[in-house]
Specification:
Elements: E1 6-9, H1 13-24, E2 29-32, H2 36-56, H3 61-70, E3 71-74, E4 85-88, H4 94-107, E5 113-116, H5 123-127, E6 136-141, E7 150-155, H6 161-173, E8 177-182, H7 189-205, H8 211-222, H9 228-235, H10 237-251, H11 260-267, E9 280-281, E10 289-290
Parallel strand pairs: 1-2, 1-4, 2-3, 4-5, 5-6, 7-8
Antiparallel strand pairs: 6-7, 9-10
Helix pairs in contact: 1-2, 7-9
The structure holds acetoacetyl-coenzyme A and nicotinamide-adenine-dinucleotide.
Acetoacetyl-coenzyme A binds near residues 56, 119, 143, 146 and 148.
């Protein structure tokens, strides 16, 4: 495989997980955030995950030190210029992603492969901000990245087949099961998952049941690991809101439209677990309190 060094952009919920699994798979990994504080916060999260693995006996102390040694945090885009593959995991907004890849395209040699972890944006629309759409794919990981076994590998109409196969093999090298998806809005998983999550908010708005009862219904009645509101808080309400806008724009179908309550919660800064409040209040993290409508 030609991939030796990996770059990850964004060290939030997803970027930190992606950087962790790349370093655990043996790749020297450079991860970029916008401030030193956010680099530190992201690396601390990875450190906590590694500590949990050591405690469980799933990772030796020596292996943890090796993983740490392969990870480098930075605020400088320049530090990614020698990467063979760059995976982007920043905010779900097209202008930000296009601006970033425009800058990376100037910085990196022509052979560097670019990938976006976008949940819903057409990959080709991001790839078109570079002069190398043939070396551009979607690598869509799932939250929490160290645990979820899937990666959707997304091919656009412009992706070179050899580059695509290399990315499928890269996904497997990370210990994930790669599935092949084309560049349709939301790929495979979010095409099915997003309408379900938005419908849960609509059910709440219509008084079908409370946050707790709807969550328990889907957990205990269907065996889902989390109810829809716990999952919405886990994914991030801001991210879900952006995803719904992008998917509504793509399909013009009501099932993808953002429910007014979701919009208002995002406007209030209630972005879910990461901000301390969403459909649950996490003031006491061990005992989240459901929102009462
Ligand atoms: N990071 C790393 N590891 C984590 C973790 C995290 N954030 N959270 C939990 N884990 C690990 C735990 O250490 C534990 O490991 P072991 O089994 O080896 O001990 C394991 O995951 C299970 O954790 P818990 O026992 O604490 O809790 P759980 O059984 O409830 O599992 C969960 C937690 C795996 C998150 C589970 O609740 C789950 O699968 N939830 C659904 C997640 C989901 O649907 N993700 C997809 C979201 S959609 C998406 O990502 C796409 C998009 O574009 C929006
Ligand atoms: P997040 O808000 O947790 O993290 C995004 C991070 O990117 C922030 O820390 C921000 O400071 C940083 N950032 C913004 N611009 C940057 C730049 N130019 N350079 C470096 N860092 C920058 O968001 P997230 O949940 O990690 O989502 C990131 C991407 O992954 C989005 O495209 C999202 O749709 C996608 N995604 C999210 C999930 C999920 O469950 N949250 C799942 C799969 C895919």
């Amino acid at each position: 495989m030609a991939i030796q060094i990996v770059g990850v952009i964004g060290c939030g919920l997803m970027g930190s997980g992606i950087a962790q699994v790349c370093a655990q798979a043996g790749f020297p990994t450079v991860v970029r955030e916008v401030s030193a504080e956010l680099v530190e916060k992201g690396l601390k999260g990875i450190e906590k995950n590694l500590a949990r693995l050591v405690e469980k006996g799933a990772l030796t102390d020596a292996a943890r030190n090796e993983v740490r040694g392969r990870l480098k945090g930075t605020t400088l885009l320049d530090d990614l210029k020698d990467c063979d593959l760059i995976v982007e995991a920043i905010i779900e907004q097209l202008p930000a992603k296009r601006e970033l890849f425009g800058a990376l395209d100037k910085l990196c040699p022509p052979q560097t492969i670019f990938a976006s972890n976008t949940s819903s944006l057409p990959i080709i629309e991001i790839a078109a901000s570079t002069g190398r759409p043939q070396r551009f794919v979607g690598l869509h990981f799932f939250n929490p990245v160290p645990v979820m076994k899937l990666v959707e590998v997304v091919k656009t109409i412009a992706t070179d087949s050899a580059v695509y196969e290399e990315m499928v093999a890269f996904g497997a090298k990370l210990g994930k099961t790669p599935v092949r998806a084309n560049d349709g809005g939301g790929f495979i998983v979010n095409r099915l998952l997003v309408p379900y999550l938005l419908d849960a908010v609509r059910a709440l708005e219509e008084g079908v049941g409370s946050v707790e009862d709807i969550d328990n219904s889907m957990k205990l009645g269907c065996g889902y690991p989390m109810g829809p509101f716990t999952l919405l808080d886990f994914v991030g309400l801001d991210t879900t809101y952006y995803i719904s806008q992008i998917m509504f724009d793509e399909f013009k179908e009501k099932r993808f439209a953002a429910p007014p309550l979701l919009k208002r919660m995002v406007l209030a800064g209630w972005n879910g677990k990461k901000s301390g409040r969403g459909f649950y209040d996490y003031a006491d993290p061990a005992n989240p309190k459901p929102m009462q409508l």
